[in-house]
């Protein structure tokens, strides 16, 4: 058995952050029942271009493996009744909607505790359910701007930059998954559920970590650094070689000493200007140009071989294609292959979350479901017969045929 096979989550999720969070739980065995609103075509992720057609997309496939999908309009009386029946059988209701929407849809703990006192109501919103921005929609790009990330990303003197990936969304999904599991644990222990009020804004600000601590405590002013350099550890950045780019990370003094040998410049380790991290930081305007000149004299491969041999942290700067075919990617079984009626064989990336001994086989994975693919099965598991299912369809609670 997978560790979460006894967990059932009813999810009103859409797009990226919410589905990303629950997909890790699904891979660990949790039953994720996606409630998709048929009046708006279900999860908006189904229509994200450029690879979208017939109510499905490769974007949607990236975030929704191993889940079930039912169509249900919980704003109708009939749909609400079905939703509450699901809540009676579930451990959690999970959503990623605007901060004021959980109240409007009545999916908070105060709304559902009479239905199931142990239910956990986990809401991942843009800005949380409190505060002056609580009614604003939250998107990764907006949160990177508000959270200070873009002021730190890019070259000094250039325009502010977002990260290449939607990291606020994805980190928010992880935060939601951790919070949801903790709340389910507490509900099973205590017999009482709760709300989890999570936000992408909180996630973005909390991830400022040590630069935030430095600023608030010591007056440090964070700034963008040349070639993605660490703010104080030198050398720890991207360097241009004769035929490409690599990263060298001397996070300990011993790595710097080894690097000077690899560079055939051992005297640099003895130079009092460069002896310690503090010395190199004070003299960064001297040492960085010198190192850049040295690294341009050899190819990436010619640098990596001796640095690997000396156990100096380093890596080539791969493109996406290179990262996906790296031998370590393949050995770690990070690529999932599933069949899809629209796109044929779909190759997506598996969760980094693992439970089990090193090298253990991973559980089989299923492709993301077609919208409403599991509606009838889930309803019959609730005890609904043909007549009641037909009545729900007639009332429009399951969407139009």
TrEMBL record:
The keyword Transferase applies. Keywords: Transferase. The keyword Transcription regulation does not apply. It comes from the Bacteria. Pfam families: CoA_transf_3. One of its GO terms (molecular function) is transferase activity. InterPro entries: CoA-transferase_III_domain, CoA-Trfase_fam_III, CoA-Trfase_III_dom3_sf, CoA-Trfase_III_dom_1_sf. This is CaiB/BaiF CoA transferase family protein. It comes from Pseudonocardia lutea.
């Amino acid at each position: 058995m997978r560790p979460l096979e006894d967990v059932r989550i009813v999810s009103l999720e859409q797009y990226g952050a919410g589905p990303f969070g629950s997909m890790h739980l699904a891979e660990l065995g949790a039953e994720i029942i996606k409630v998709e609103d048929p009046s708006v075509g279900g999860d908006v992720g189904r229509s994200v271009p450029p690879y979208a057609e017939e109510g499905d997309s490769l974007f949607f496939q990236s975030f929704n493996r191993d889940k079930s999908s039912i169509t249900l309009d919980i704003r109708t009386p009939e749909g609400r009744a079905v939703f509450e029946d699901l809540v009676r059988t579930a451990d959690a209701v999970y959503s990623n909607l605007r901060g004021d929407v959980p109240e409007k849809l009545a999916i908070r703990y105060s709304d559902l505790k009479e239905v199931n006192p142990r239910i956990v109501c986990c809401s991942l919103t843009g800005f949380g359910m409190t505060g002056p921005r609580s009614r604003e929609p939250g998107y990764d790009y907006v949160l990177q701007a508000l959270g200070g990330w873009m002021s730190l990303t890019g070259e000094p003197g250039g325009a502010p930059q977002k990260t290449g990936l939607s990291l606020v969304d994805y980190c928010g999904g992880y935060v939601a998954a951790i919070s949801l599991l903790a709340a389910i644990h507490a509900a099973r222990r205590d017999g009482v559920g709760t709300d989890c009020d999570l936000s992408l804004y909180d996630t973005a600000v909390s991830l400022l970590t040590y630069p935030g601590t430095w600023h608030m405590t010591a007056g440090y002013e964070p700034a963008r650094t040349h070639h993605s350099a660490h703010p104080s550890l030198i050398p720890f950045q991207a360097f241009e070689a004769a035929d490409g780019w690599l990263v060298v990370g001397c996070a300990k003094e011993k790595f710097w000493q080894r690097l000077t040998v690899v560079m055939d410049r051992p005297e640099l380790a003895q130079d009092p200007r460069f002896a310690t991290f503090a010395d190199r930081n004070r003299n960064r305007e001297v040492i960085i140009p010198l190192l850049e000149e040295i690294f341009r004299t050899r190819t990436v491969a010619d640098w990596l071989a001796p640095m690997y041999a000396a156990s100096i942290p380093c890596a080539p700067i791969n493109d996406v294609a290179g990262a996906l075919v790296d031998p370590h990617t393949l050995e770690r079984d990070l690529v999932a292959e599933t069949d899809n009626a629209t796109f044929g064989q779909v190759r997506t990336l598996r969760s980094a979350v693992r439970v089990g001994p090193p090298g253990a086989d991973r559980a089989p994975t299923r492709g993301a479901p077609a919208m409403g693919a599991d509606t009838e099965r889930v309803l019959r598991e609730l005890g609904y017969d043909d007549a009641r299912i037909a009545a729900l369809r007639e009332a429009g609670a399951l969407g139009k045929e």
